[in-house]
Amino acid sequence: MKSHKKKKIKISKFEKCLYALAIIMVSLCPLMTVFEKSTLSEVNYEVEKIKTKIAEQKKANESLEMKINELASLENIQKVIEDEGLVYNNDNIKNID
Known about the structure:
By secondary structure, this protein is an all-alpha fold. The chain has one domain. 72% of the residues lie in helices and 0% in strands. It has helices spanning 13-71, 74-84. The termini are far apart.
């Protein structure tokens, strides 16, 4: 019987580097995906916090606008005028055409 010798396949340095690079890429892709999703989640959380702050600020602005309208109302102005002792005199008003 003849014994069969197995041929050794020689792998060049370039192929070894290529295989190593492929293995590294295959192992790093899932890690990069997890990192990207983590970063995206963190950014979305910050966006939601900012949206909440904006909503609170809008409510505060509306409240202040209502207060301004209340203070600028004719009734309030007349009350302040009376408290200061001023008198409304229609004869002193002059219209310019």
